[in-house]
Structure prediction request, 591 residues.
Amino acid sequence: MLRRADRIALGLAFFGVCVLGLATLALMADIAMRRTVDVSITGIVDVTQLAQMFCVALAMPMAFLRESHVGVEFITDPLPKRWLVAVKGFAHLVGAVFMAAIAWYSLKQAGIQVDQGDKSQTLGLPVAIYWAPLIAGALLSAAASMLLAVRDLTVTRTK
Amino acid sequence: MSGPLAGALGFAAVLVLIALRIPVAVAMGVVGTIGYGLVNGWATLGFVLGRAPYESISPAGLSVLPLFIMMGVFSAHGGLSKSLYGFVASLIGHFRGGLALATVGACAIFGAVCGSAIATAATMGRVAMPEMRRAGYDDRLSSASVAAGGTLGVMIPPSILFVIYGLMTEQSIGKLLAAGILPGILGTLLYMGAVSWSTARDPKLGPAGPRSDWAARIRAGRDVWQVVVLFGVVLGGMYVGLFSPTEAAAVGAFGAVVLAWAGGKLNRSNARQAVVETALTTGMIFTILIGAGIFNYFIDSTGLTDALVKWVGDLGLSRWTVMLLLMVMYIILGALMDELAMMLLTVGPVFKLIVALGFDPIWFGVMFVTVCEIGMIMPPVGINLFVIQGVSGLPLQTIVRGIMPFVVADCFRMLILALVPALATWLPGRMG
Prediction:
């Protein structure tokens, strides 16, 4: 299960970085055109911001799944193994609840903005496509964290 | 309970959760959420959790971060670190402690294309540690020189910490990056001084190696032009107003990928690894930004910042005493927690305080990053100590035993920056 989740998270993270890579190419083209023919690509800021949202939000589930988040471990490291695993499981559980709450309230906030007809500044892109990666990233991060919590807490119970 | 007291308890609660192994981002977010609910009523929770995460990751200026991360990661995978180390070692490797001096120098130059201390230490550690071991260097000196040298990555631009500081305090990112150049060079020289002092006390720590002839030096320097060009275009372009910070970061990321690919160093496997590293670092940093965004909503609502400024004003301390106390607090905090988290947790209130005391915000940014550098090599949780432990397999105690001269060098740098603030403010002052 964890291996399959890692593959999905990896695929999403790859996709996000590639989207940012495409925005980078667009930025390069914009700089070149501005310097040579004095023409700028319309809405380059909108595009870059959208790419950033995809890259950032879709990278989050992998960061959770691979436990890459910054934390302090030396205080709990001396605990007996059983306790240590329980503490880890608790930490993952808190992370899962927190990210699920973000996903839920972001969904509600996105709904409000969609109803108001909010759009991006230059290209007029619907605001929903800016919210979508954040909601998906938060939801999948919650799922990733829950998987790790289940792994750790199950180990604790069976020991 | 008064608002400021609730804010202070919030800080304590974050530290407790962090001690319980909860990631810093989650700890800040959870405390911010609950604290905001307690202070402002639970009905307002939807407002904070619905707005803060989006506001924390959507500003267009933040695209600088993943792009500079990408630039550093691809430069590392493109083999630039090895070329740099070989070149600097050919120039000064024949001195006593020369390879450790070369390590510090190569870290500084690599820091010019990589904005992360961890990436700089890990990358240079893999290259420099085996060379120093082969040359008979003591593990204490070799490991400490990489751990300390790696921290130069966050002072010498592009620096991820400067970018985040600039975004949080609404200071010019271009000026902050320029502000890091001279203190970065100063830090390099002082670290070299620390190496020389260590080897002068105990020559067995770093025996002198053979001298390279000029033909060998020129051969070793063939690939170094890439770093010079990349750094020159990115920073030079920003300095003369050719690019915005986002565009400069895009040029840097694009350039790093192209140089790695053109040098034949970017195969399918390490390109994939580079993408994964970029994503992991990006995901980690932005999750902290979300947590900090929520926490800052809470802190703002408590009025803690204004109360802190007023309280310090009422104490009647001189502004330099306040600055000294702040720096001591940051050194202690930096020894216990991650520097990025430390910045996001504290810079909001502290920034208002230092501006109220009349300090230059750019200068304080440089002082803050310097103190972060100390935190990165300060036991028990100096992150670069663990990075080098992971790279070298040495016991942590060995690295810690060699690190103190470098910590002293950093403290000395802070003193010089306090006495000569122009080192941090002169270059940004000349920008348009």
Summary: Chain B touches chain A through 56 residues (CB under 8 Å). Chain B is about 80% helix and 0% strand.
